[in-house]
Write a structure and sequence with these properties.
Number of strands of chain A: 7
Number of helices of chain A: 5
CATH class of the largest domain in chain A: Alpha Beta
Number of helices of chain B: 16
Helix content of chain B: over 70%
Number of domains of chain B: 1
Largest sheet of chain B: none
Number of strands of chain B: 0
Radius of gyration of chain A: 31 Å
CATH topology of the largest domain in chain A: Protein Transport Mog1p, Chain A
Order of helices and strands of chain B: HHHHHHHHHHHHHHHH
Distance between the termini of chain A: 107 Å
Structural class of chain B: mainly alpha
Radius of gyration of chain B: 19 Å
Oligomer: heterodimer
Chain lengths: 188, 296
């Protein structure tokens, strides 16, 4: 027969054991849930754009009135004095957009592009803050590696470095050789 | 077409596994060309060298907008890369089944690696090449039947595009068909009728995007394309001194494949890897980001 004191002790122990087991279970469940909860997408910052640009009612990425990419090709420089051995290679040509690569010894050192900002007007409005010009058109430094010019209030011309050897002054030298006057006439 | 966001496709590209190992095994053929760039934001930073968070956000937003507009061609290119991989995998599954039923010894390693049927493998090689051409045109905005433009561009291929071509030449040409892979591919096409082509799973999977009014027209486009790129492929093999033995040795080291399993190598590659889709996603993401960075 169990003594009353011992019975109370056993009851207290079993109560504690029950609490410990219950607490462990809660911990296991809660940590388990954390472990199995879907992690936040590494690109969660783009989810809003994804939802706004997908589905049936999504807007066109390129405006119907954007100029043909092929009509932009003639305004690119194919060579620039002082850059012998540099090769200009066609890269992309889509409506409202044309892009060429500048390669040196087979390695890509820069990209040249023209885009019709009728499809994304924000690209043009940023030139309102420009304080300098290239060939008489507003110019801006963009990010670490880009220099852009807005031609005829519509066409953005950019040179972006793809190698540390191609510096801001190289970008400007190439921008000087685009046919901006011809390009501006496309905006009529 | 895929409804998966483009950033998810890039974020979920694996950093290991059979596809990655089999591509790394080809580093000896195209040294340093491929570094398995994964992750959407990571790709933006790597391609553009930009670090400003607001600019990265703008570039990513524009890239997503361009990708989601089906008329821009990026989704078609993805579909082509995915479909040609899954259709050729079905071919590989059949080959593995054949190996088990044949139940006979093989004379040597080369025979062991030559899968049957050779005709199906030849079709697979030629159609994968044409898929590259069509996907290239979709991504870069060049008319879909522009073989000349593609030929000019393939000589300028670098990074994951060059690695994809290396894998095509090695794993779909040299390993299963031997050093005469290009001649075999072309001979198969020239001896085939349009209905032969239409019985091929790989062709059936992608034929709607291959230029040509009917199967006969599509067959002649595939033939003309393959014939035009044949010299480039042979030059690729010759310039780099590639042989079946070198490729197999490098691959068997990379995937730790024991000698007694080598007979399954060709089929194993078909079933276990999706190198077209993997590197195709990397290529279209790069081109998208290049364009987006120019447009913002």
């Amino acid at each position: 027969m169990m003594m009353p004191r011992l019975r109370r002790l056993c009851a207290a122990i079993s109560q504690k054991a029950f609490l410990a087991i219950a607490l462990s279970a809660v911990l296991i469940v809660s940590t388990g849930c954390t472990a199995f909860a879907p992690p936040e997408s590494p690109s969660a910052q783009f989810e809003q754009t994804q939802s706004e640009t997908s589905g049936r009612k999504a807007p066109d990425a390129v405006a119907k009135d954007a100029v043909k990419g092929g009509s932009l090709n003639d305004f690119f420089p194919r060579s620039v004095a002082g850059y012998s051995g540099y090769e200009v290679v066609a890269a992309q040509e889509k409506q409202g957009f044309a892009q060429f690569k500048v390669n040196e010894g087979g390695a890509n050192v820069a990209v040249l592009s023209i885009n019709d900002t009728i499809s994304n007007p924000n690209a043009a409005t940023k030139y309102e803050s420009s304080t300098r010009d290239i060939q008489g058109f507003p110019a801006l430094s963009i990010g670490n590696n880009g220099t852009g010019v807005l031609v005829g209030d519509r066409f953005q011309v950019k040179v972006q470095s793809r190698s540390d050897s191609f510096k801001a002054e190289d970008r400007e030298a190439w921008l000087e050789k685009f046919d901006f006057k011809g390009l501006a006439k496309l905006n009529r | 077409m895929s409804k998966t966001p483009v950033y998810t496709l890039v974020d979920e590209l694996p950093n290991r596994g059979l596809t990655v190992m089999s591509l790394k095994a080809l580093d000896f053929a195209v040294p340093g060309a491929w570094n398995n760039l994964t992750g959407f934001v990571n790709t933006i930073k790597e391609v553009t060298g930009e670090t400003d968070e607001a600019l990265i956000q703008e570039i990513g937003d524009r890239a997503i907008t361009l990708y989601n507009d089906k008329s821009e061609g990026y989704q078609k290119a993805l579909w082509l890369y995915q479909t040609v991989d899954s259709a050729s995998s079905a071919l590989g599954t059949g080959m593995i089944a054949n190996k088990f039923t044949e139940n006979k010894s093989f004379l040597g390693l080369i025979n062991k690696l030559t899968p049957k049927p050779e005709k199906a493998q030849s079709f697979d090689l030629t159609i994968k090449l044409v898929v590259e051409l069509v996907a290239f045109c979709q991504i870069n905005g060049i008319p879909g039947d522009s073989i000349g433009d593609f030929l000019g561009a393939v000589k300028d291929y670098g990074g994951e595009s060059l690695m994809r071509m290396a894998a095509l030449v090695c794993y779909d040409g040299l390993v299963p068909l031997g050093p005469g892979f290009a001649e075999k591919g072309l001979a198969t096409l020239k001896q085939s009728s349009a209905s032969d082509l239409d019985h091929n799973k790989t062709f059936k999977g992608v034929k709607e995007l291959i230029p040509g009014n009917n199967d006969k027209g599509k067959l002649s486009f595939v033939t003309e394309s393959f014939e035009s790129v044949q010299d480039w492929m042979l030059g690729f093999v010759g310039d780099r001194g590639l042989t079946q033995d070198k490729v197999v040795t490098s691959l068997s080291k990379a995937v730790d494949l024991s000698q007694d399993k080598l007979e399954y190598l060709g089929a194993f590659l078909d079933v276990g890897t999706n190198y077209y889709e993997h590197t195709g996603i990397q290529t279209l993401t790069r081109r998208l980001i290049e364009r987006a960075a120019a447009e913002v």
